[in-house]
Amino acid sequence: MVLELREHALDLTRVRLMGVLNVTPDSFSDGGRYLTVEAALLQARRMIAEGADLIDLGGESTRPGAQPVPVEEEKRRVLPLLEALLELGVPISVDTRKPEVAQAALELGAHLLNDVTGLRDARMLELAARYRVPVVIMHMPVPDPQTMMQHAHYDDVVAEVKAFLARQAARAIEAGVPQVVLDPGIGFGKRLEHNLELIRRLDELAALGHPVLLGASRKRMIGELTGVEAPAERVLGTVAAHLYGAARGAHILRVHDVRAHREALAVWEALEGGR
Predict the structure, then answer these.
(1) Distances from the Cα of 211 to the Cαs of 54, 137, 197, 231, in angstroms?
(2) Given 3-state DSSP classes, what are the helix, strand and coil percentages for the chain, each rounded to the nearest 5?
(3) 234 is a catalytic site residue
(4) Active-site pick, 162, 218, 219, 234
């Protein structure tokens, strides 16, 4: 399986790492650390040196309860940095739910759209089709981070997430989007038991035939399971969750701690290859 990202082609026969780069003051884990182009570019270079296969750039926090960011402010945060990142030689994903930001990023040359609202806005479909770029379709029960945890109620979380992703993927392909990547949305309108079940049964999402992205990095569920309160210290628990997900079909892991994941994957892949 190959993910075509404009001039880049990402071979997904091995697990790939998407490095998280948040240029926000309020992200749950690293908010405020990379607010200047210089600081963010340094972090991007560090992640690439440690083994990141692509970088996911976000200018708006979508943690539970996060306040929305105006379009022009999100553009101000993202676009100057995006221009610099495009010179680094790896695919750049833009994490946005705003068509105006998506269009500006695609005009500059972004390779992938990461839409946490799951392509509910038809304008995002049209943009991805027009610019011929893949889209990450993520599940959350409602398209609003401020209220999503009020809707964390499921009869069968895997069946409901799978149905949503299958429906949105079919809609995207029909609209002309070249490829889609499916993300179960760990922590987005989901409680601990929902997150665990989604990772346990990730192979059911992979069975839909599209690449699967898993992003549990440093999230609350890791803290709940390990007792580690500081998000930046949840590295070991994150790696464990992600390796488990990789064994069940995840093609891309969205991570803050690239080096730890690259080392863990090197050992895991060697063991898997010996079967």
Answers:
(1) 15, 11, 19, 27
(2) 45, 15, 40
(3) no
(4) 219
* Options 3.40.50.300, 3.40.190.10, 3.40.50.360, 3.20.20.20; CATH of 15-270: 3.20.20.20
Active site (annotated) includes residue 98:
no
Q: What is the pLDDT of residue 157?
A: 97
Tell me the average pLDDT of the chain. Answer: 93
Angle of helix 235-247 versus helix 192-200 axis, rounded to 10: 40
Domain boundaries, the chain: 15-270
pLDDT score recorded for residue 33 = 63
Indicate which residue of 254, 259, 262, 275 is catalytic: 254
Mark the ranges of the chain whose per-residue pLDDT is less than 50.
26-31, 275
Q: How many CB atoms lie within 10 A of CB 252?
A: 25
Q: Are 144 and 150 in contact, with CB atoms under 8 Å apart? A: no
Tally of CB atoms within 10 A around 32: 11
Percent of the chain with pLDDT over 70: 95
- What pLDDT was estimated at residue 151? 86
Cβ contact 55:84 at 8 Å: no
